[in-house]
């Protein structure tokens, strides 16, 4: 199989996976900061 | 929304159909595939445990002002999302590597 014969679903999965691998670490970092907001509150709040 | 889309497309459909469609005999990292599946299941159990703790009022976004004021179930959502996110990274990396390395030639 060549790149010009790749099904459209595989292209979609490839694009999704590229986005997933690039975007999820930032999202996870924000999530961990959310956990910290709820558990370890700073003294001012 | 991101979790639902990835678990519906990248999870069963991607891991099952992609090797069939590109004519590959296996995934690039089979044990990473198994790891992502099981950590997805564990994370879904953690998120479902929010039902027992009163749910979370923020919807799927979980944005900050409401998130910090919410009660018990929000912790289930955040921890479950942290667990699922690891599986999302693993599944995305595995599928991208499968398509690029064992997929089409030239």
How would you characterize the overall build of this protein?
- The complex is a heterodimer of chains A (45) and B (106).
- Chain A has a domain of 31 residues.
- Helix content of chain A is 71%, strand content 0%.
- By secondary structure, chain A is an all-alpha fold.
- The longest helix of chain A has 32 residues.
- Chain B is an all-alpha fold.
- Chain B has one domain.
- Helices cover 72% and strands 0% of the residues of chain B.
- Chain B is elongated and about 55 Å long.
- The model of chain B has no long low-confidence stretch (mean pLDDT 86).
- At the A-B interface, helix 1 of A face helix 1, helix 3 and helix 4 of B.
How far do the termini of chain B sit from each other?
35 Å
Please write the string of helix (H) and strand (E) elements of chain B.
HHHH
Head-to-tail CA distance between termini of chain A: 60 Å
> H/E series of chain A, N to C?
H
The overall strand count of chain A is 0
Low-confidence stretches of chain B: none
Largest interface, chains and sizes: A-B, 27 and 37 residues
Q: By helix and strand content of chain B, what is the structural category?
A: mainly alpha
State mean pLDDT of chain A (0 to 100 scale).
Answer: 86
Give the oligomeric state: heterodimer
Strand coverage percent of chain B:
under 5%
Count of helical regions of chain A: 1
Share of helical residues of chain A? over 70%
Largest sheet of chain A: none
Strand content of the residues of chain A, in percent? under 5%
Helix content of chain B: over 70%
What structural class do the secondary elements of chain A suggest?
mainly alpha
Tally of structural domains of chain B: 1
Question: How would a textbook summarize the main sheet of chain B?
Answer: none
